[in-house]
Each structure stands twice: as structure tokens, then as C-alpha cells.
Amino acid sequence: MEKWRRSERVVIITKYLLEKPNTLFSLNFFAELFQSAKSSISEDISIIRDVFREFTLGKVETLAGAGGGVIYSPLVGPREKDEFLQEIAEKLSDPSRILPGGYLYMTDIIFDARLAQKVGEIFAQHFIELEPEFVVTIETKGIPLALMTAKALNLPLVIIRDGSRVTEGSAVSLNYVTGSSRNIRTMSLARRALPTESRVVIIDDFMKAGGTAKGMVELLAEFKAEVLGIGVLVDTELPEQKLVPNYYSLLKLSKVDEIERKIMLHPHC
Amino acid sequence: MEKWRRSERVVIITKYLLEKPNTLFSLNFFAELFQSAKSSISEDISIIRDVFREFTLGKVETLAGAGGGVIYSPLVGPREKDEFLQEIAEKLSDPSRILPGGYLYMTDIIFDARLAQKVGEIFAQHFIELEPEFVVTIETKGIPLALMTAKALNLPLVIIRDGSRVTEGSAVSLNYVTGSSRNIRTMSLARRALPTESRVVIIDDFMKAGGTAKGMVELLAEFKAEVLGIGVLVDTELPEQKLVPNYYSLLKLSKVDEIERKIMLHPHC
Q1: Nearest to B138 by CA among B174, B112, B167
Q2: B108 chain-A contacts, CB cut-off 8 A
Q3: Which residues of A touch B111 (CB under 8 A)?
Q4: Carries keyword Signal (chains A, B) (predicted)?
Q5: Distance from CA of A7 to the nearest CA of B (A)
Q6: Do residues A202 and A231 touch, judged by C-beta distance below 8 A?
Q7: Residue ranges of the domains in chain B?
Q8: Which is more confident, B178 or B267?
């Protein structure tokens, strides 16, 4: 007789899969955990896979063979994605978010762990096919989105520092010009933070002219990294010509009107 | 007949609970989702509760009555916590982490999403009884741990900025002296980031003399906030007398010996 009932086993397996997205668990692992036959575990996993598919809660894949097992990948269905981005767009369009100088206050949204997690899952789903090895961002506001992307992809996160800090050993620094305000700034990345010739995706919160993104690409070139893609939560309609050729943005900011107190911001189609 | 089998329902309910820790779900919510009787849902939840307890995977509580429902709180059992902290301590004790000046390279550990999540769950479990309303940290390295603590507690995260930035509107700034290197620095917090008289916990990665923590407490006093507690991943044995009276630390750094290439770092008992 099985020690644990099916309804108990599926709860525990679900918990393990969700805690470690994009991580392979062997059937043996669960068979030993429950002192159960592999055939029973295999049926448990089929149930989880089918019901996740039915409710669009993520993808559960089984891999056959000796190196086989089960992997969970977060999945944000098209309808859920649309509704979610619409919800963020509405929150960000609140006129009380207009700051002096025509800036938009986004910090509370970016640092909301649940929203950040969902954004991270959307980025993960978009970039996973490119098989990145690292997620890269620049401090500060890119961090929550990049951390959640890294979590969903089961990858390490690498932080480019704004300025140059002493606590990370030898580092490569780059002076760059911010695309919009034309300020000269410095960014740096510790040598030990990223092996050379890594495959990376860049995640950030905001892109205007793309000067920061361009700087990151150039800094990463010093590490011989291959930049597979760039994901940002919000980009601006203007300037139309960005300093980086390709990127994936979720929301487009068309206008912040300080006088009329109006924000135009919408999900990308 | 029920549309969904028990083994299917418990998978979905588990997913909902884990995605939103410390959030109340009514039984009606699940009854409607599955077009199922509330009595069936109630039994489903009992199964989840019991098996979570059995495997020390978290606390599932049911609240009776009209406002009732079910809540999941992450729980890191004493043995799991010990093993986890021992694992981090060993990683951090690798002599290759010694940086010039006797600093310790911790960034990759702090920015590992899974380790950060576990640390966040340990902090959440420690501070939840104090009923905080906000988690507060200072950029940059405190962010992942604080974000994961906020997620586990289902609370907003507030970031104190290092320096003063233009993109967040009116802010309160404070000059403070770092406890160890005696540098004068500025930290600032946007007025809109935190309502006055909030109940907060402070989370950070590292504490040496406690100058930064003291600065945060003073800055938060300008917001009439009540600081219920301070949690740090690593504190140093010296100086013994910290600038803040009370805090909760997970790991103690006793020594970084640059010449002997030796690090002494252990979990707090």
C-alpha cells in the first residue's frame, strides 16, 4: 500500500515544482520522498500537467529516459497577460504620479513583489527559447524585475553598479552618456560577477533614448558576452530612434503632460 | 457530480496559496472556481494543511465564519533553517571571496533569487507576529532580501535611496556617518513612498557598526514610523557595541584574515 494518498502527493509535488521553476526533478526523487512506485509518481505528474494546462497556470513537461524527470515553467496566458498589463497601465496613468520635470513615479509598482514576479514571468517566457545563462540589470530600479526574471528562468542575476564600488574587487568601468539628459555617468561590473563569453539577457524598468541600455551592451562586450535580448517594462514613444536596435517592451509611454495633468501609457500590442 | 476531482482541485488550490502568501482566500472563491460544494473545498484544504504540516512546508490556516477562508504562510522549519544557514555560511567562507581591504564578496549570494527567497521567508516568519505594514531597505544590496521578505509577508517594499534622486518628487534627506569607515553620506526617502505613522521592519544585507541602520531609523523617525525590528543577513562580531540596540541577524562574521586567507563566519545559534 502507498504511504501517501494521491491527493497528498500531488500537493507536495506541486509545491516542489513551483518553488524551483525550470529545474529538473527526477521521478526517483519523488519516488523516494514518498516511498512510492515511479509509475504512481508518473500518474501524479500527469494530473498536475493536465490541470495546469486546463487553468493556464504554467507548463509542466515530462522528459523520458535516464536523464528524465519533470520541469515546471511559469506561463502567463495571452488573456492573463493582457489583463495584467492593462492593470499596470491604469495604475501608472494616475495623474498623481506626475513628478516635477515630467517624470513618472513608478517605484511603488516596480517594487511590488507580486507585480514584479508576474513581469519576470512574462520576460522569462519571452526569452527562454534563446537559452540565456545570466540575467543582467543595472541598479537600482531594474533589480526587482530582473531578480524575478532570473528566478523564473532559474538563472543567476548579475548587477551592473551605478558608479564604481570598492566592495567587489577588480571591475570594468565604462563612462556613458544617458540618451535623454546627456549626462555623463559611470557604470561598472565586477570581473568575477560574469564569466567571459556568457549568453545574457538584459532587463530594466525603463527606456527613453536607450543610452543606458547601449552602455550596458558595451560594458558586456568587454566580457565578450552575447546579448541575446533586452527587456524593459516601459519604453517611451519618443525619441522614436533608440540607441539599441532591438528590445522587448511591455508598456509604451506616449506622453506625460504636466500642465493638463495627463498621462498616456498603454500596453504594446 | 463534481466537475473536478479532488487530486486536481488540491493542485490548483496549492498553486493559488503559494503564489500569494499571507493572503486570505475565501472558500467561496474556490467553490466558484471549481463549481464545487464548500464542504468539498473545506476537505481539500484540510488535506493541504495536514500534508504541509507533515512535510514542514508551511502553515495553512483556516479561519471560520463569514470573513473566513484560508491563508498560507511560509514556514522554514528549525532543521531546514539550520541546514540552509550552514550552506550559506560555507559558501561565504570560501577564501576566494576575500577582497582587497578585507571585504567579503557576497553579491552573488544575495542576488541568488532562491537563496534570497529563503532568507526572506526566515525574516518573514520572525517578524510576522509584530504585524508590520511595510518592509524598508536601503539600496542596493538589501533589495533582494527585502523584496522577498515583503513577498512572504504580503507587504509593500519601500526603498531608501543612497544619495538624493530627482525622479521621486519631494523627499526627506539625512546625512549620516557610516559606523565603520566614518564616511559622511546621504540617504533619502520620497515623501510619497511611506505614509506617516507606519509600522515597519528594516531589512539589510550587512551590519558592521550599524551606522547605516541608525541612519535609517532616524530617517524613518521623520516619517513618524514605528520601527518594529531590524533584520540583517550578516553582522560582524566587532565592534561589539552596535549603533542600534536591537536587531536580528542570521550569520555572524568573526574574521576576514587577508594574510592567512581565512574567513570565520557562522550561523547565529
Answers
A1: B174
A2: 156, 193
A3: 147, 150, 156-159
A4: no
A5: 4
A6: yes
A7: 6-73, 78-267
A8: B267
The answer to whether residue A20 neighbours chain B at the CB level (below 8 Å) is: yes
Q: Do A158 and B57 lie within an 8 Å CB cutoff?
A: no
Indicate the residue of A7, A113, A151 with minimum beta-carbon distance to B7: A7
- Which three three-digit cell numbers place residue A168? 567587489
Residue A175 region by backbone torsions, left for phi larger than 0, else alpha for psi between -120 and 50, else beta: beta
For B12-43, write each residue's pLDDT tens digit. Answer: 999 999 999 999 999 999 999 999 999 999 99
**Would you say the C-alpha torsion A219, B140, A156, A52 has a positive or negative sign?**
negative
CA torsion angle B170 B174 B175 B177 (round to 10): -150
Q: Does B139 touch chain A (CB under 8 A)?
A: yes
Concatenated DSSP letters of B42-98:
HHHHHHHHHHHHHTT--EEEEE-STT-EEEEE----HHHHHHHHHHHHHHHT-GGGE
In which residue are the cell numbers 504585524 written?
Answer: B131
Chain B's closest residue to A58, CA to CA, is: B15
A217 or B103: whose pLDDT is higher? A217
Q: Which CATH number describes the domain made up of A78-267?
A: 3.40.50.2020
Cell of B94: 570560501
Report the alpha-carbon distance of residue A83 to residue A116 in Å, rounded: 15
How high is the ipTM of this complex? 0.95
CA–CA distances in Å: residue A81 to residues A120, A159, A251, A265, A267: 12, 27, 12, 16, 10
Beta strands in A76-142 (DSSP E): 98-99, 103-104, 134-138
Q: With an 8 Å Cβ cutoff, are A143 and B148 in contact?
A: no
A244 near B CB under 8 A: no
* Average pLDDT for B214-225: 98
Question: Which of A40-54, B66-80, B125-139, B160-174 is least confident?
Answer: B160-174
Q: Is B7 on the interface with A (CB under 8 A)?
A: yes
Cβ contacts of A58 on chain B, cutoff 8 Å: 15
The CA distance from A215 to A178, in Å, is 9
Q: How far is B17 from chain A (nearest CA, A)?
A: 10
A133 touches chain B (CB under 8 A): no
Half-sphere exposure of A77 (CA within 13 A, CB side): 9
Taking the mean position of all CA atoms in its chain, how far away is CA A60?
19
- Checking if the pLDDT of B175 tops 80, the result is yes
Mean pLDDT of all residues in chain B?
94
Residue contact A140–B147, C-beta within 8 A:
no
Q: Which of chain B's residues have a Cβ under 8 Å away from the Cβ of A116? A: 147
Q: Which residues contact residue A142 at a Cβ distance below 8 angstroms, ignoring those fewer than 6 apart?
A: A203, A204, A205
> Does B153 score more than 60 pLDDT?
yes
Fold classification of A6-73 is Arc Repressor Mutant, subunit A (1.10.10)
